[in-house]
Amino acid sequence: MGNRITRGRRMSDRNLSDNEENSSTTSGGRGRGDGRRVLRRNNDGTWVSIAEDATQQVESNFDLDLGTILRLLIQTESGRMIMVRSSDSGLDGSSNENSDLDEDGFQPPARDPVESSPDTNKLDAHGDFREEILAGTGRKFPNTQKRPQSFVGMLGSREKGIGSGQQFTVGDRSQMSTGYIPNKMKRVASYHNKAFCGQFSETGNIFLTACQDQFLRVYDTENGKFKKRKKVAARDVGWSIVDTAFSPDGNFVIYSSWSEFIHMFNIYGEQETHMALDLRPADRRFCLFSLKFSNDNKEILGGANDGCIYVYDREVADRTLRINAHEDDVNCVTFADQSSHILYSGGDDGLVKVWDRRMLSELNPKPVGVLAGHCDGITHIDSKGDARYLISNCKDQTIKLWDVRHLSNEAAQEQTRHATASQNWDYRWQSIPRRSRPKQSLPGDSSVMTYRGHCVLHTLVRSYFSPLYSTGQRYIVSGCATGSLVVYDVLTGKKVARYKEHRSCLRDVAWHPTENTIMSTSWDGSIGCWQYQGGNPDLDDSPDMLAAKMDAKETSRPRRSLRLRNNRRGFFS
Length: 573
What we know:
Layout: H1 7-13, H2 18-24, E1 37-41, E2 47-51, H3 66-75, H4 121-125, H5 127-136, H6 151-160, H7 170-178, E3 184-190, E4 195-200, E5 206-211, E6 215-220, E7 227-233, E8 243-246, E9 252-256, E10 261-266, E11 274-278, E12 288-293, E13 299-304, E14 308-313, E15 318-324, E16 330-335, E17 342-347, E18 352-356, E19 369-371, E20 378-383, E21 389-394, E22 398-403, H8 410-421, E23 449-452, E24 463-465, H9 468-471, E25 475-478, E26 484-489, E27 495-500, E28 506-511, E29 518-522, E30 526-531, H10 544-555, H11 560-569
Antiparallel strand pairs: 1-2, 3-30, 4-5, 5-6, 6-7, 8-9, 9-10, 10-11, 12-13, 13-14, 14-15, 16-17, 17-18, 18-19, 20-21, 21-22, 22-23, 24-25, 25-26, 26-27, 28-29, 29-30
């Protein structure tokens, strides 16, 4: 999820000597006796903070458990080796004053990303994709037919039987709704801890949230409502709940954390059913970062920090497959379509891999293809649902569109491995290094399109295709470490919306499958409900209309007197 140490490196690090361990937990060359404290593990496996002088008595064959230290560091939300003065720290190593957190204990937003003009040459060459999006959004029609530019005109044409006849097509419906991108947020829920996940059920009648307070909340969203249905206490949670998923029938929810188990509970019914599904991992320091139900409701797919893909069979009630898939953490998995035969995985090795479920074997874990072009670890992937196209969000601050019919060769894969291995920063607590921002594509990059303009820091930020029913999948909606909701036009690569209402990282977003509503889940502990407010936009066929308005809005500047006043108040850096 966050570190850049391969599994082999992790194994070698376990054999660090006591001197190396002490040097990694102290710094600055200060003299002893200045009140500094370091971590030491007792024989019973517990960790305590002791004075630095006491470390001279530690045995030289001290067994350093890096995974335990890492989890302790993550829980402090600092990410730095815990080495503070005893007057500023308790025995748990947590500092009383953390510069990484704001006054309410939430991670402050990152700086706005630097944007560049999108290159559409590759996408233009994929005519089928463009034609599909244009047809699905009502923007493809015979040259002899002029599309009406207003609802009134479209209603008149329908009554006259012009174009689509006596009824609106799917494209007509999408064309009418795509101009109304939700632009106003109403805070519908607030928590005292970071909110990590927010998802609609397949029908959109249920919305689920998962929070670092170790509770899952189920809301009834039918007919525009937002009413809490139940609050479920999560079990066996390490640090936080990191992913959730609905069963295809909408009756169950599964969730994962730093635990060897997937947990599942029922949504409906007065009596709660809470089950633990054992994955039996080889490593006791285990977390499933991503999980999905198969469409037949029989299997659960997961990607974990040990570089493996897991398949749990609900009928057998046991793990049936453990595939060695990536060279580092598997941060995301998903199915390509409703058949659940083809699946995708993305990892911290920077690669997206394509697998055939019917050919998966622990003895021969070979993907059917690999997609290479990113320069850093993958945080999230989403399939278009047609078993051909997918998008991947990445720590290199880009989203890429892929066509699985155009796979990457070994040379391109090696370019990605080299670029990823050369990254020496940690996105969880460090700013984006200037050199880590790719200025040009890697040799052999097989992606169809690259989208830039959002920020990926602190956590596994997610991005999705917009719904087919209401938008014809014309857009890509993404979270952002700046707290912004970002919407891209999938064909032009330009931002058509960027709204900043959250004061910390926006980790997850969910567009209602049939209604014009977006839900945002942020580390500031709030859940936002976005809906459109404003006038009636023109039904322009050009995909550049909203992007042009967005550019005009972002390039406008306040008058000089206001800028100077804001500078004095520290609003501008």
